[in-house]
Design a protein that fits this description.
- The protein has about 290 residues and is an alpha/beta fold.
- It contains 7 helices and 14 strands.
Length: about 290
């Protein structure tokens, strides 16, 4: 046999051997994927207390197949499926625990705002996801806070949709960041209105969030998209010691003062705003004023 032909035969044998080894390795990996790394256990871990969702609901709305390799599970698709089927479910993540288990970490969405549409009221979470719809709604101290957007809601939404607003309020998150949970917020705030007012310093309209409190006062937070955490803290501090101002004089005109009483503080308006230049006030970001209503 010629030397050149011998070399070609030897080269073909090497290729056959190499491909056989490669195929065997791939086959072994596939076998391991479906045996050692095949999905066997699905667990649900609730990160919050639950009233409107259950483990069974979560498991009924996943499409993970048993014995499917955990490497190839469609996590994003299943998160979307769960949240669409169960409006109250907020899937934090889906964790892979090798070799063959996944854990679905879930929190329950909180009813924060009630937004009235043309035909019904939408009960929403902090991100304005519609959790349920009701025909009638009255704000009480143990249900969602009534939110009135600047423009009326004319579009009809379904459960699971997100209501589209130009400025989604961050009041809930910032109250929570100041250690005021949803129960305290609901007991304090009857309604929230979004609006605008002209600002002489900025020479333009700025946002204003008006809170109506169950205790009778109103709170106006200006520029609610700027330093909101600090403004909410100031609101909480002022409100908690509001009646400590009884007996003090409040300037209401150039040379006119009013003696603060319990009665006029019961229906006053607390103004919260920030300084144009806080470097002039020892770094203090915001300030408050008290206005007396007629």
């Amino acid at each position: 046999m010629p030397k050149l032909l011998k070399k070609e035969v030897a080269l073909k044998k090497k290729w056959i051997i190499g491909l056989s080894i490669t195929g065997a390795i791939i086959g072994l990996l596939v076998l391991l994927s479906f045996t050692l790394f095949g999905l066997r256990t699905i667990e649900v871990d609730f990160r919050t207390s639950t009233q409107n969702i259950s483990e069974q609901q979560i498991l009924e709305n996943v499409s993970f197949k048993k014995n499917m390799p955990v490497f190839f599970l469609g996590k994003k698709k299943n998160i979307k499926k769960i949240e669409q089927a169960i409006p109250y479910a907020d899937v934090i993540n889906i964790e892979t625990v090798f070799p063959s288990k996944i854990i679905i970490h879930v929190a329950e969405r909180v009813e924060v705002y009630a937004i009235k549409g043309e035909e019904e009221t939408y009960i929403c979470d902090e991100n304005l996801k519609v959790l349920r719809c009701v025909q009638t709604f009255e704000s009480t101290q143990d249900n969602a806070m009534l939110l009135s957007p600047m423009e009326p809601i004319t579009q009809k939404y379904q459960v699971g949709d997100y209501i589209s607003l130009d400025n989604v309020p961050t009041l809930y998150q910032n109250m929570y960041a100041n250690n005021r949970g949803i129960g305290e917020q609901e007991a304090l705030i009857e309604s929230i209105s979004q609006g605008e007012e002209y600002d002489e310093g900025y020479h333009k309209n700025i946002s204003v969030l008006t809170l109506k409190l169950f205790s009778g006062q109103h709170v106006k937070i200006y520029n609610d998209d700027f330093q909101m955490k600090a403004k909410v803290k100031m609101f909480i501090d002022v409100y908690s010691q509001l009646f400590d101002y009884i007996g003090q004089n409040l300037k209401v005109g150039t040379d006119e003062y009013v003696l603060l009483t319990e009665e006029n503080l019961k229906n006053c308006t607390i103004i919260i705003n920030h300084f144009y230049d806080n470097s002039r006030f020892d770094g203090q970001i915001c300030y408050f004023n008290i206005y007396l209503n007629d």
